[in-house]
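Schema walk-through. Below, the input block comes first and the output block second. Nothing else is stored per chain. Lengths vary across the set, and this one has 378 residues.
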Amino acid sequence: MQIGLDGNEANVKNRVGSGVYALELLKEFSKDKNHQFLVYLKEKSLPDLPKESANFTYKVFGPKKLWTQFALSLKLFFGKKPDIFFSMGHYGPRFSKVPYVITIHDLSYLHYPQMFKKNDLYQLVNWTKYSVKTAAHIVTVSETTKKDIIENYSLDPSKITVTYEGYDKSRFKPQPKSKIESVKKKYKIAGDYIIFVGTLQPRKNIERLVDAFSLLTQNSELKTQDLSLVLVGKKGWLYDSIFAKIKTLDVDNQVIFTDYVPDDDLPVLIAGAKAYVLPSLWEGFGLPVIEAQACGVTVVVSSISSLPEIVGDSGILADPKSVESISNGLKKVLMDDKLRSELVKKGFANIKRFSWQTCAQQTLDVLEKVALTSKPIV
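--- output ---
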């Protein structure tokens, strides 16, 4: 079977979220010898993408602007047609004679539209709506998001398959103290720290996290010294208020912003933290959470959207709209060594549910089934 893939989500330098998902699936697909994979790109493939082989090739073409809607659509309409096409992002081609499958990661733009730039919001709302209606099948990354898709787009549940994300087992694991100390020195971190990993954007709820951290540092019962909050991630959009909040609360010297961190440093930075925190207002999966657990770090996460499903009883759940709840969740972890140790063990057990190999195989199963049962669009 010949499978067409939109590989653009993976073909970026500083990958987060859906970019990591796309790259890991491409890696797994490139190992499969039962199918022919055609990876469509609007720019030349980056060096760390899987190498071409007899059954895994790249096709680069433009124009780049509105690539999914026009260039890709024309290629699938007039060019050599694969049996099935898979987009690892929300958008399918505007018109196509090839049945296609899309991945929807989350519907945060419907729940918090005010937290997106107008142009991005318009595209997410309208292009996703079209793609959902015309896709032969939808893949999503959690049962929570599946339910959300059903409720918002009135879809038959049988049209949606959940494939949990995975983590890179070779990278995300406990790290030696010597490496941790070296990386801490590199990023000028002294003493203990709490870590957040994610793009700086309103949905991540970082302003409340800063408030919660400020409240936490005022607690004289804490056993930790020189506590810092380390924010790891690139600037996304509407982030100026985060830095304003840090100045207002006068915690400039305790909040460390690293920007995007190289792949080699990230697991070490996470492993050295006392706790990982994700107080997000909405997540489709929450990939950094299981990466943190794989590094042996206790997690404190939101009690809403997909995070309770992904974490279960292996982490602390906090109300993301309550500064006190976030602060108390962190306080529990920092003050109770026994609890932290128990949650680390539960975290190691929890991550056994997640694998990129399984995710890729389940996705291939969907593509095979859809290719066999869907009639070409004429």
